[in-house]
Write a structure and sequence with these properties.
The structure is a single chain. The protein is mainly alpha-helical and 276 residues long. It is 84% helix and 0% strand. Helix 4 packs parallel to helix 6 and helix 5 runs parallel beside helix 7. It is globular and about 55 Å long.
Amino acid sequence: MGTTQRQKLSYWLATGLLLLAVVCGVLSVAGGFTKSQSLLLNVVGIVMPMVIGASACIAVALLNRSAAALSRLAWILIGAGMALCACGDASLFHHEMTVGGDPEVGTAIDALFWCSYLFQVVGIMILTAEVTGKRRYQHLIDSFTMCAAGGALLYTFIVGPVLSQTDLSTTERIFGVCYPVLTFLVAWAGLAFLAGSASTGHIQRSIAYLGIGSVITGLTDNVWTAQSLTQSYQSGSWVDYGWIVGYSFQALGAMSSLLYAVQGVATAQTNNVLIN
């Protein structure tokens, strides 16, 4: 079996694992399991898509050597962001299993999520600039206008209520504000990515998946934050589906890009044989 065939086999194996992760995630939300069983289903359903996506992103950067250096850096950043998010979710599930309840504000788990969102936002925006080409600066102006409108809503429903709570410590206020801002930026970056790609007249499947997944994930995190403020969030509610779907779409976007990269390597190898 040649290298390209092994790479394609790995792609379809990852696709199968992703489908398994989605099924496990849906089952975990449906309920009816013991605490340990639900924890295992959560880990498979939420953490596995991020691990698959992170691996695919890094593979895209390594395989697609003909791409611009900035594009490869963007995929590495997105992959690193997904990997950090997977570590954060796994640590969160471990804390729930061993200690119970939510971890204290300002722990290493928060740092993992913060770095994850920051890396993803920067990586997606680099890809957006690469995709839009000559319109990149005008597109950034448009997207910042869209960000300002969304930021007003974010302040009204989340940031404002956090700042108005007098019983919160300074650390809780900082984390309570920065977390929804970063998750909003993930959603905004995904939407800007989709809008910028649409302006070129053609949206690749990988771009659509990655952009949609980022929007869903970012919005889900903001809904979770809003519900946490009012203490109305319940584990196993419909909000959990947002993370499962969002992470899965992000993984599909990375895997689709990996498939393009593998096909590009195969074409280059064929051309090299014909030339020689």
